[in-house]
Amino acid sequence: MTPNLSSRRILLVIAGGIAAYKCLDLIRRLRERGARVRCVMTRAAQEFVTPLSVGALSADHVFTELFDRQDEHDVGHIRLSREADLVVVAPATADLMAKLAGGHADDLASAVLLATDKPVLMAPAMNPRMWSHPATKRNRERLAADGVRFVGPGRGEMAEAGEAGEGRMAEPLEIVAAIEGLLAVGRRLAGLRVIVTSGPTHEPIDPIRYIANRSSGKQGHAIAAALARLGADVRLVSGPVAVPDPAGVNTTHVETARQMQAAVLELLPADAAVFVAAVADWRTDNAAGQKIKKVAGSAPPTLAMVENPDILATVGHHANRPALVVGFAAETADLVANAQAKLARKGADFIVANDVSPASGIGGSGVMGGDRNLVRIVSAAGIEEWPEMTKEGVAERLAALIADRLEAAAR
């Protein structure tokens, strides 16, 4: 295991929920990557896992009480909050989220969170109805506005019989990927240029109408932001979207596939290119200069269609091809087979394949336009299945994978 987190100091706050058992695996995963892990446990957390188990895996003292005579002789909660590089809350319960959102500090965990000057990453875990409650939504929005980062929750069966939905804590490896992304700012991809495309393209029929698709740009923009957090010089080429430009990213706005291709080629050479945009396959042969009027009793006009340029294939076989080329395959049927064919045909190093059919069952509104995704990484080495997660979670993990690939290529 590459020590991606060598000597990094993680303060893990474990709150009370059945998902607390996952923190044992999380500690192990962090330590095998070289991280130093110190743990704070709430009283409720100790009902699910013991300080003895947590201490054995972290190889350090476990902190449990705010008014501990030994730990607090030098204002220990302040020291704990400042000595870490990152504070991780896993599981983050509705109660602990509410405390931090409201500025409460009546136990060690909440005092540490309020006193820290370091980044905070929360992995929420709770019953689906608790997660969707308006109070929890308000608290999450307040915490996000205060700079708290989130990973998860996922969807699935709950501990309670017959309960299912969104609220499962992110898996340990998903949390690790988010941690690596947060702590690698200015480090792993510093000095490297990465091109990212995002959103749909609009192909005009006339000045009023156009051909488009349901892509929101949420996944592409999240990937651009995650790569920027790793220190990359990210150049985002975005089709028409409603999401804001990511902070720290140089964004070029385009409308059509041909404009997107021209913008991408203008940005070459680059170290990597990630083609997330859902580019229209066809456009009208001759877009009308004026609005096409409906004439009563007449048949609708015939639209002659021509094929748009294939931006992924163009760059995948370009003389200035980046060292790493990543494509996306949004499919409604035969997902893996179509992704494998795309991989071979378009000169990509790997394809991120996702099922965008309405029957996919992903999120409440499907992948396109929604906030969640379920992807497979398809490469010549095989197929790697990732769990369903938020689009931000996919972005963090994909950015870490891209950094791994570029580091391996440089060795």
Overview of the molecule:
By secondary structure, the protein is α/β, with parallel strands linked by helices. It has two domains: 9-183, Flavin prenyltransferase-like (Rossmann fold, 3-Layer(aba) Sandwich), CATH 3.40.50; 193-410, CoaB-like (Rossmann fold, 3-Layer(aba) Sandwich). Helices cover 33% and strands 23% of the residues. The chain has helices spanning 22-32, 51-58, 76-83, 94-102, 108-115, 128-132, 134-145, 172-183, 218-229, 257-267, 311-316, 335-346, 391-410, and strands at 9-14, 36-41, 62-63, 86-92, 120-124, 149-150, 154-157, 164-168, 193-198, 203-204, 210-211, 233-238, 250-253, 272-275, 282-284, 305-307, 324-331, 350-355, 372-373, 375-379, 382-385, 389-390. The two termini are 16 Å apart. The relative contact order is 0.10.
